[in-house]
Amino acid sequence: MKEAEALLRGRSAPHEAVSGFPHCADTRSGGKPTFSARCPPRGRARGRAAAGSAAAGHEREPAAIGSDRACAAPTSLPGGCCSSGVPLPGDGAAARERSDSCHIMSGDSDCTRTSPSVGSPSDNEFLPDRPKYVCSLSPDLITKAREELQEKPEWRLRDVQALRDMVCKDYPSLGTCLDDAFLLRFLRARKFDYDRALQLLVNYHSCRRSWPEVFNNLKPSAIKPVLESGFVTVLPRLDPEGRHIVCIRPDRWTPSNYPITENIRAIYLTLEKLIQSEETQVNGIVILADYKGVSLSKASHFGPFVAKKVIGILQDGFPIRIKAVNIINEPRIFKGIFAIIKPFLKEKIANRFFLHGCDLNSLHQNIPPVILPEEYGGTSGKLDISAWNELLLASEEDFLHDFSQLVLPCDSSPHDMLVSGDADDKQCDDSLRGMKPQLYYCY
After folding, report:
1. CATH code: domain of residue 233
2. Which end of the chain is more exposed for a tag (fewer CB within 10 A), N or C?
3. CB pairs under 8 A, 24+ apart, for 128-131?
4. Last residue within a domain, chosen from 170, 189, 210
5. Does 370 have pLDDT greater than 70?
């Protein structure tokens, strides 16, 4: 637990010291622990309205933000969380004490009154009780973010302010966190396109409010049985592109023990934890799904209704870049499962699915064996889920306030909700009835 707490605070504990996780290292750095929640301090940026042309997608001129700001990892991380945003890293007590450090926007928010007009910035434009954003990206990742995500360090805070102003104007009752680090997640996920980032932010909250079975009382301790089963975990080593490998094993789930929504809750919390890292925001993640032993009875639980919601969240309602989905040991039944999933996939995501069957050599062309556990022909030892479980469970306080209360914004409209109502439910039920014969045929 002490090692996990050290990793949560961003301190580098020796990777051999992590109980049951001797290979917790970055393959690119020769031993750097990768399970660190290195999220930058979250603070309110200069309250300076961005030019209207910039918000409309026109060419932006760099603002006098102070481009000489050092991009270095912080020595300490503030705790706290926001009412509807993603929790801040930090120990539980500190998280509660500093929960007010995150700028929350509500219906009576003063965000528009604290945003001066465009002009020469001064130190007075920063609120003294808010920590300033400090970039934790390495020089290589700054270059990668510039090339792949259109993120320019000299414009970064101006882009954040532009998105903040759009939220305050168009969704004043959204109840979202407005801190720099939080909003940056959505800008990076949409390559700094303001409109798309705003829609992603709205979808993020809409998804959470429209599926209470998944998001109510969502905290690590609530999904402990799923974690202990090994249904979802994160491999301890990064791939050569600096991406975490999220390993999902449906055969570890016993439907009689808990509903499928518990598995979805566990996956969502895992992604929330990973996205706290700026490195993950830039590099994205890779999914490894092992379908060995998946029967028809299990497959029937994942119908079009659940598939649509899950895929909708991953594609349009969560600020993460899914770079590859590797499927191994898939039985014939998976053809039916994929037939359910594919209509909801965007072409770009569908092209990132790789079906390897039982061919481990094919898998190794996508994920090097040095990263994989012995179960998948790798050389990193037996698959050990204990270290990731310990890290996630140690983050309990981070998630308590974030998911304890969800209030539907009064200005939300049906087209903003990623998951619609009864009409879609009926359509999905009809689709499931039409799909069942295909499932039986494949099985």
Report:
1. 3.40.525.10
2. N
3. 129/101, 130/43, 130/44, 130/101, 130/103, 130/179, 131/41, 131/42, 131/43, 131/78, 131/101
4. 210
5. yes
